[in-house]
Amino acid sequence: MNAIIAKRVDSGTPDTTEIRDLATAAGYTVVGEITQSRKADPALQLGEGKAEELAEVAERTEATTVIFDNRLGPYQTYNLGQLLPEGVEVIDRFTLILEIFGQRAQTRKAQLQVELAELRYELPRAEAKTSLAKRDEHPGFMGLGEYDESREQDIKDQISRIKDELERIEQTEEQRRERRRDSGFDLVALAGYTNAGKSTLLRRLAADLDVDENEGLHRDLDATAESQDKLFTTLGTTTRRADIEPRDVLVTDTVGFISDLPHWLVESFKSTLDWVYRADLVLLVVDVSEDIDEIHEKLVTCHDTLYERNEAPIVTVLNKIDTVDDDELAEKRRALSSLAPNPVTVSAREGTNVEALLDRIDSELPDWEEERLMLPMTDDTMSLVSWIHDNAHVDDVTYGDQDVIVSFEARPAVISQARSRASELRTTAAESA
């Protein structure tokens, strides 16, 4: 599929690097580029002369698609479609992102989120087609698609249905998170921009997975934790256990951020971000090989997103240090010190400093507490002792004729649950005495 990139900026020189990468990720071959620095034209996004030049380039290169790095309104899409050669599709960066999401979505939840985002994007266009039809200006709709009188209501009904199903999935996931937390697991979430190396880092931290392994043992990793130089490799969430004795730590990889996402798209994927918002610790992964200004901008965006609802501590992880020298790394640490005052520097690919990151995770997570419980010897006592072994670090177990004394360290939630179960045992023993 041949595509032309188009981008307009209010001032300065348009940068098309990201939109080109996105187009390539979606499977397009970029055969041309049109850029312009001026205020947006309400009818065409580009100025009329530049829009006509775009049409000429599209015809000359036999492009099938024009991809705008700007957000196009439905009427702009319609007007551009009238200028371009017949059969040339007009899409903007958000349609392109949805294409990529659709290609990568493997789980039911990810597929529903993509479908929801697509419907939210289509709704104003369906409303525009209704308006154009009433004005009798609808031959082909020139990029807006065919007109269906009932489509607008169908979209609203589908949005409602998908939101209900996503809510049920989220309730199930929240119950799973709480069960894990009650069982003594600390929950760590990986956050950051797409392509920062989160999936590679997850594989490096995972106690049950080799970093170079991708098939066989863990089928879901094929879809959700591949280590590839691609945008949006991870759409769902993948959770793995990290080896941080004596803790039981679960690390979850989440969907990557990308700049300038509209509200409707963020809203569609917000349940994925709940893994970040409800974690005990967030690792904010940054690609340190990028320019300082770009890293700074991305950190600001991430902080805005995370601090909106996140209560857990955030540790910035400067990843890919194997791609920069020591002087450049030191310079970037200084320049970013206000946003990342005490970062951990690692190379997830090479494994450099991963032990230091594990130590930092241990120090940032809630402190464990010591406990000593005296349990009456009943039929259910050994079940509780076994549960404590599974969910805590047991220092000593002393068996007497009438009781069992267990000394252990654990998360406060586990200690609270152990005390409650011990109290139930004592009550049962007293009643049967």
UniProtKB/TrEMBL annotation:
Monomer. Associates with the 50S ribosomal subunit. Keywords: Coiled coil, Cytoplasm, GTP-binding, Magnesium, Metal-binding, Nucleotide-binding. NCBIfam families: GTP_HflX (TIGR03156). Its cofactor is Mg(2+). The lineage of its organism: Archaea, Methanobacteriati, Methanobacteriota, Stenosarchaea group, Halobacteria. GTP binds at residues 192-199, 253-256, 319-322, 347-349. One of its GO terms (molecular function) is ribosome binding. Residues 102-182 form a coiled coil. It comes from Halopiger xanaduensis (strain DSM 18323 / JCM 14033 / SH-6). GO terms for cellular component: cytoplasm. It comes from the Archaea. InterPro entries: G_HFLX_dom, GTP-bd, GTP-bd_M, GTPase_HflX, GTPase_HflX_N, GTPase_HflX_N_sf, P-loop_NTPase. Belongs to the TRAFAC class OBG-HflX-like GTPase superfamily. HflX GTPase family. Mg(2+) binds at S199, T234. Gene3D superfamilies: 6.10.250.2860, GTPase HflX, N-terminal domain, P-loop containing nucleotide triphosphate hydrolases. The keyword Cell division does not apply. Residues 186-369 form the Hflx-type G domain. GTPase that associates with the 50S ribosomal subunit and may have a role during protein synthesis or ribosome biogenesis. Its main location: cytoplasm. Signal peptide: none annotated. This is GTPase HflX. It is found in: Cytoplasm. The keyword Phosphoprotein does not apply.
